[in-house]
Amino acid sequence: MDVKLCPVGGYSEVGKNMTAIKAGDDAVILDMGFHLPSLVKFDESGNSRRNLSPAQMIKLGIIPNNKVLQSWKSSIKAIACSHAHFDHVGAVPYLSNDYKAPILGTPFTTEFLKAVARDERLQFKNSVKAINTSSSYKVSKDMKIEFITTTHSTPQSAMIAVHTKKGVILYTNDFKFDNHPIIGKKPNYDRLKELGEKGVLAVVVDSLYAGHHQKTPSEKIARELLRDVMLGSETQGNPMIVTCFSSNIARLKSICEFGKKLNRKIVFLGRSLAKYSTVAKKIELIDLFKEAEIVGFGDKIKKKFVSMNKEGVEKYLIVCTGGQAEQNSVLNRMINGHFKFDFCAEDSMIFSNRAIPVSPNIENRERMEAKLEKFGVRIFKDVHVSGHASREDLRDLVKMVNPGHIIPGHGHNKLVKPMEELAVDMGFKAGRDVHLCKNGKTITF
Ligand SMILES: [Zn+2]
């Protein structure tokens, strides 16, 4: 019996991650994500996503082209989601209805999916099952899905092991090896090593930062960077504004803790911040968000600025969307005067993120920073660590799981080439054991 892997999306670009595994008559799909640059481009054209059919979204490159899975359709028995990032689960409400299969994810991921579907007024025909890490789901007599605890930049991320009669396929998009996570447990190294004793048949590796010669620093480092900026700078008498990825609940936790120490009133402004933090509250991941006022939508945000101005904005810690300088983000609207907020000299602006290194993002961020500089705002950049494993973490992963085959994932061939080079250094053979994939080109083990 052959085991096949179909790279549906995320192997010819960064984003729209989707992979399918088939063994005999059983198949599973791992992740169904958005291609965020295409989505942002469409949203900023002023058109509504609500009018788009899945076929149109595929054509626009916003979601993966699942037509390549047509012949596997009746075999698909589960859709497993690794974590709650849009580039991994954004397309689920649009594509999952094509399959008679349950949607699986950790409690945070599944609650997030339900919140997205509610917001977009979409409905799943599929059942949605929450599964904790360190547990399994029996797909069929011969196939099982196991969620393994890992760390990343959003909570309850899982590595997914697909157990087949011929061996285990391990899917690691996305992960980092964080030994001091702020929320949740350390990665389950013991389980990875246990799988490695027999050797996994193949591993799909998050290779986004395979070219970075380091071990990705822990979230604890980002926390200390934040502590230094927030508690160690003379910021009294001016508002403090922070932006970070809305999905990074651990980062938001640190921001809230330091905001509280500063005796600032904490307010979360923006739709995606409201969505992620409300989900975290709902599953009781952390209770600190009780301290923060969460305002998601435009009109209410407008009103909140009026009341903040009356009370004195200098009393506030404003946590808002806009770290990528998106047109519709709260930060951009504060700068362009859509919201009543007057930036003044020595206001603090903390970017607890990094501009995604693609040209529109970098240019938009530079323009945004130039405007803030004109106001005389204090800018604190790069108060951040990444959520993706670097080269030395990847080496450790390969050592632990002892794979027969390596599939570099989370990017096009040129970007993930350093993972192939690392694997070759470790004794694997390019083409035979290491496979640089293209979307839609199935490989057989
Ligand atoms: Zn991710």
List keywords for this structure.
single chain; about 450 residues; alpha/beta; Metallo-beta-lactamase, Chain A; Rossmann fold; seven-stranded mixed sheet; six-stranded mixed sheet; 14 helices; 19 strands; about 35% helix; binds zinc ion
Explain this structure:
The protein is α/β, with parallel strands linked by helices and 445 residues long. It contains 14 helices and 19 strands. The chain has helices at residues 36-44, 54-59, 86-89, 92-95, 107-119, 189-198, 219-231, 249-261, 271-282, 298-311, 330-335, 359-375, 391-401, 413-425, and strands at 3-9, 18-23, 26-30, 76-80, 103-105, 128-130, 135-140, 143-149, 158-164, 167-171, 202-206, 240-243, 265-269, 292-295, 316-320, 348-351, 378-380, 405-409, 443-444. The strands form 3 sheets. The protein has a 7-stranded mixed sheet with strand order 6-5-4-3-2-1-19. A hairpin with a 2-residue loop joins strand 7 and strand 8. Helix 5 crosses helix 9 (271-282) and helix 7 packs parallel to helix 8 (249-261). The protein is globular. It starts with a strand and ends with a strand.
